[in-house]
Structures are given as structure tokens and as C-alpha cells.
């Protein structure tokens, strides 16, 4: 009898099943007994149970109620599995770490591709409470995350993530490793939040507004793209050419812009 769960399109579910890729992901994470592991979207438990065996305990965040009883049953004798039934975007990772009495969490997951960017931004909001993150994502998204200035795929996601984390693409995973196969290639990426001394000190809301506006229309010069936020003189005061486009600026250039206000 087939006891596999039926993937739900509404949740963007593609269940990883190929053993060699599961083993490579677990090896990349390298969980230890003293880690507080959190998995986003455990699905059928392909990563859940290898991580649980290695770490001894794991907290899984799952929105699909149909999967939860199966996960609890299979966890018997494997380790201590706690399941949080919630939308991950509403989970306070900082509070989770505090309540668990740990400084930082380790997070992993095969993220639903249709909401991967919101999940990434949500996680970096809690970066101070996270040791590292290992995610399976659409390869195109990982390419954008790791893109350098000047690349065609360098943009808002690249800047915001690289200002918060060290982004390390690890390896690609083909569609056939999933059930059902997605229409795109996937990649595994490691995100390591930067230490306090390496983090920027700009106002987060202003920085986000500047980066969003700068990349809203990529062909516009900065002076045109940012006209609602600052004038050309202010851009020049940051050591940046107002006629330049956002795609050529390094992440820290946006920090320099965010720390300036319009000159009188």
C-alpha cells in the first residue's frame, strides 16, 4: 500500500525523495547533538528524520494539517520532534530561541518556491538569533541571492541578503529528485548571518526603501529612481555617481545612501 502523502498545489509542495540528495543536504548541514534545529516545511519528513537522528531533537514548522499526524507517528523512537502548526511568516524565531533558552537556532528547509523570497526576508529579520540556514530553493532564486554587482540577475534580493548573510550556493538538485517533479532546477544554499561587527548600521526601513526604489525600474539612473527619497547632491555626497544605475552598486553603497539625508 502506498502511504505517501498527495502533494498539494495550494502549498507548493514538491516532496524530496532521492536518497543521495537527502544525504548530501544532511552532510552539508552537519547537525550536532547540541544544536537547536528548526525545519521549515518538513513535508513527508525526508530531511526531518535524518536531522532528528543526528541532533536528537528538532522543531518542525508545518502548515499542512494532513501531514502532522504522519510526522508524529514516524518520529516515535527516532528523537524528540516538536511540530508547530503555523504559517512560517508568522513565526517569531527570536522568541523561539529565547523560549528554548538558546542563543541561536539552526534552520533548514525545502521552501515552497512561490513564497521563498518572503520567507528569506522574514528569516533575515531574525538573523541575530540564527547560526545558519540551509535551504532548497529554485536555482534561479539562488543565482539571484549570490549575484555580484553588474550581473543581470543582481537585484534587491542580492543586496538585502548579502548585507545580512554570507551566501554560499552548495549544489544543484534536478527535478527528478522530487515528487512531483517541479518544472525548474533547484539548488541548495547556505546562509550564515554576519557577525555583529560586520553588520551595517543604517536604518533598516530606509535602507529597504532605497533598495526597493533603486531596482524598481532597473534602466533608470539613481537620480531618477530615488527622486522621491533623495536628490542628486545627496547621492553624490555618498561618493556615488547619480547617473549610475542600481545594478552596478555594491551592497554597502546602498548602506552609504541610507545613512545620508538630503542636503539643505
UniProtKB/TrEMBL annotation:
> Which residue intervals define the domain Ribosomal RNA adenine methylase transferase N-terminal in the entry?
21-195
Per the record, the domain of life is Bacteria
* Keywords of the record: Cytoplasm, Methyltransferase, RNA-binding, rRNA processing, S-adenosyl-L-methionine, Transferase
Where, subcellularly, is it found? Cytoplasm
Q: What is this protein called?
A: Ribosomal RNA small subunit methyltransferase A
Q: Name one Pfam family in it.
A: RrnaAD
Q: Where does S-adenosyl-L-methionine bind?
A: 14, 16, 41, 62, 87, 110
Per the record, the coiled-coil ranges are: none
User: Annotated Gene Ontology MF terms?
Assistant: 16S rRNA (adenine(1518)-N(6)/adenine(1519)-N(6))-dimethyltransferase activity; RNA binding
The record's InterPro entries line, in alphabetical order, gives: KsgA/Erm (IPR001737), rRNA_Ade_diMease-like_C (IPR023165), rRNA_Ade_Mease_Trfase_CS (IPR020596), rRNA_Ade_methylase_Trfase_N (IPR020598), rRNA_adenine_dimethylase (IPR011530), SAM-dependent_MTases_sf (IPR029063)
Q: What does this protein do?
A: Specifically dimethylates two adjacent adenosines (A1518 and A1519) in the loop of a conserved hairpin near the 3'-end of 16S rRNA in the 30S particle. May play a critical role in biogenesis of 30S subunits.
Which GO CC annotations does the UniProt entry carry?
A: cytosol
Q: Which reaction does it catalyse?
A: adenosine(1518)/adenosine(1519) in 16S rRNA + 4 S-adenosyl-L-methionine = N(6)-dimethyladenosine(1518)/N(6)-dimethyladenosine(1519) in 16S rRNA + 4 S-adenosyl-L-homocysteine + 4 H(+)
Q: Which family does it belong to?
A: Belongs to the class I-like SAM-binding methyltransferase superfamily. rRNA adenine N(6)-methyltransferase family. RsmA subfamily.
Q: Which organism is it from?
A: Dyella choica
The record's EC number reads: 2.1.1.182
Q: Does the keyword Methyltransferase apply?
A: yes
Amino acid at each position: 500500500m502506498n502511504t505517501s502523502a498527495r502533494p498539494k498545489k495550494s502549498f507548493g509542495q514538491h516532496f524530496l525523495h532521492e536518497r543521495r540528495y537527502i544525504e548530501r543536504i544532511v552532510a552539508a548541514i552537519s547537525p550536532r547533538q547540541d544544536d537547536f534545529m528548526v525545519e521549515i516545511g518538513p513535508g513527508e519528513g525526508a530531511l526531518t528524520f535524518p536531522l532528528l537522528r543526528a541532533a536528537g531533537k528538532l522543531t518542525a514548522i508545518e502548515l499542512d494539517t494532513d501531514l502532522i499526524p504522519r510526522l508524529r507517528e514516524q518520529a516515535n523512537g527516532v528523537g524528540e520532534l516538536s511540530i508547530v502548526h503555523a504559517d512560517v511568516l508568522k513565526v517569531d524565531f527570536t522568541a523561539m530561541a529565547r523560549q528554548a533558552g538558546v542563543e541561536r537556532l539552526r534552520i533548514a528547509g525545502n521552501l515552497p518556491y512561490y513564497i521563498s523570497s518572503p520567507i528569506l526576508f522574514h528569516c533575515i529579520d531574525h538573523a541575530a538569533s540564527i547560526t545558519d540556514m540551509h535551504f532548497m530553493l529554485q536555482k534561479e532564486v539562488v543565482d539571484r541571492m549570490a549575484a555580484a554587482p553588474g550581473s543581470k540577475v543582481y537585484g534587491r534580493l542580492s543586496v538585502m541578503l548579502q548585507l545580512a548573510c554570507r551566501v554560499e550556493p552548495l549544489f544543484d538538485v534536478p527535478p527528478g529528485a522530487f515528487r512531483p517533479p517541479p518544472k525548474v532546477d533547484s539548488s541548495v544554499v547556505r546562509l550564515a548571518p554576519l557577525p555583529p561587527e560586520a553588520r551595517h548600521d543604517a536604518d533598516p526601513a530606509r535602507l529597504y526603501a532605497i533598495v526597493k526604489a533603486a531596482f524598481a525600474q532597473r534602466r533608470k539612473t539613481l537620480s531618477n529612481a530615488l527622486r522621491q527619497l533623495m536628490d542628486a547632491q545627496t547621492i553624490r555626497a555618498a561618493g556615488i555617481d547619480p547617473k549610475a544605475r542600481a545594478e552596478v552598486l555594491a551592497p554597502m553603497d546602498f548602506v552609504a545612501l541610507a545613512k545620508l539625508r538630503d542636503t539643505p
